[in-house]
Amino acid sequence: MNQQLKTVLLTVLTLSVFVIALVELSGVSKTALINKWEGEEQHHHDHATENKAAANIPKTTIAFEDTKHSFGTITDGEVVRHAYKFKNTGDHPLVISNAVASCGCTVPSYPKKPIAPGESGEIVVEFNSANRLGHQQKNVLVYSNAQEDAISIGFDADVKEKQ
Predict the structure, then answer these.
(1) Torsion sign over Cα 116, 86, 125, 39
(2) pTM, entire model
(3) Which of 41, 50, 146, 153 is deepest in the core (most CB within 10 A)?
(4) Which residues of 20-47 are buried (b: 16+ CB within 10 A; e: fewer)?
(5) Are 71 and 155 in contact (CB under 8 A)?
(6) Which helix (H) or strand (E) holds 14?
(7) Cβ atoms within 10 A of the Cβ of 146, count?
């Protein structure tokens, strides 16, 4: 083999090994030996597994008084809350398995105990407007054993600077 061909082949082999090493170490590949996303996947569930706590419970129905709320104009740094009231309109207990906010500035709290048929409850959503100037729209996905696995509730606010 001539010297030039050997050099080209060695260069291709070296670059291939380098690319494989980068892919493995970066975690880009789902089958990478060292996958940096592996630990984070435990915190970011897909929508199908988000509702597994309520999966084996009979389906029921839920009715919200409102699913959208407007806080109007608020001041930067102000913390506001809204209670989204709902009623279990079905024939089986309602179990809310999770409520996930679209942003870290929004914190939902929901009943942990089953809501009996005909009973009511509320999901309180708290929004911290610190450093969120301008028009804000946030959503919370509510996972339960209702007919719809995930129901979106949300709000908007216009955050102005402190005077």
Answers:
(1) positive
(2) 0.67
(3) 146
(4) eeeeeeeeeeeebeebeeeeeeeeeeee
(5) yes
(6) helix 3-26
(7) 24
Residue 85 tokens, joined: 């009231």
C-alpha to C-alpha distance for 17 and 7, rounded to whole angstroms: 15
| Residue whose C-alpha is closest to residue 101's, from 122, 127, 80 | 127
* Each residue's pLDDT tens digit, 94-145: 999 999 998 999 999 999 999 999 999 999 999 999 999 999 999 999 999 9
Going by C-alpha positions, the residue among 119, 143, 151, 153 that lies closest to residue 55 is: 143
Q: In the numeric block, which tokens belong to residue 48?
A: 């199908």
Helix and strand numbers, DSSP H then E, in the chain: 3, 8
Whose CA is closest to 143, among 63, 44, 42, 48? 48
Structure tokens at 31: 């089958």
**Residue for token pair 């494989």:** 20
Ramachandran class of 56: left when φ > 0, alpha when ψ lies in -120 to 50, beta otherwise? alpha
